[in-house]
Amino acid sequence: xxxSTLLSNIPLFESLTPDDxxxxxxxxxxxxxxxxxxxxxxxDPGSTLFLIQEGGVEISxxxxxxxxxxxxxxxGQYFGELSLMDGAPRSATAAAAKASTLLALDRDDFKEFIKxxxxxxxxxxxxxxxxxxxxxxxxxxxxxxxVVEEVEEKATLGQRVADRVAAFGGSWTFIGLFGGFMALWMxxxxxxxxxxxxxxxxxxxxxxxxxxxxxxxxxxxxxxRAGEKDKALAENDFQVNLKNEIGIDSLVKGQQExxxxxxxxxxxxxxxxGQLKVQTLPPA
Length: 284
Known about the structure:
The chain has helices at 3-8, 18-25, 83-86, 107-116, 118-141, 147-153, 157-169, 172-191, 202-280, and strands at residues 29-33, 38-40, 48-61, 68-73, 78-79, 93-106. It is α+β, with helices and mostly antiparallel strands. The chain folds into two domains: 3-142, Jelly Rolls; 147-284. Strands 1, 2, 3, 4, 5 and 6 form a six-stranded antiparallel beta sheet that branches. It is rod-shaped.
């Protein structure tokens, strides 16, 4: 895939003319990264847009056990585009998932390109505004996954039976039924002339011991399942809260910076248009 085609796949540049894409692609710098090598870290100064020509890239936040992979990108995709506008610190870490070849567009080269082509600046501004609207719509419509349903779908028949046995064994219905059964058993054997289990009710004690021995591991199986659900819920809550925090922070900062840059680009485009008109006026 040639460089102009790669640039045209980026929403920020898809409205540019072929000539503009060719001029901008000439400013791309090829960079190679080994598998596992960091491209940039969270908090590093941002000044470069990257396009993936070959290989793959993982975008993540956090370190060690708190590391969360937000996305895995492949050839034809891009990342770091907001740094072209604001130069703010990186909000995530990017590392090569395998040996990769990237095309880098530096912020200074992008600014020089904008200064030389005001019409292209206006097209980029329109794409930025459209992307902001799509991002806002996505943030309002996106929902979290139901991890409990996912755990339930993966449950085996034995696990489902254990859950139902534990649920019934811990209910007032079970207590009432079993209490009534024990009262009937003991009352009948105490009063009846033909007692099949006279006091001290050895057969009843054997039955109770057997039921308790069978019920205990079943309840433990159900408790383990509940622990797995709680762990999945906690992990999902952590990831959702982390992504929401990062997303909201990035969205607020990004919108503020984009609006400031849009105003700057608009003023610059107006100044350039005025200069062009002055230059084309006939001599008096």
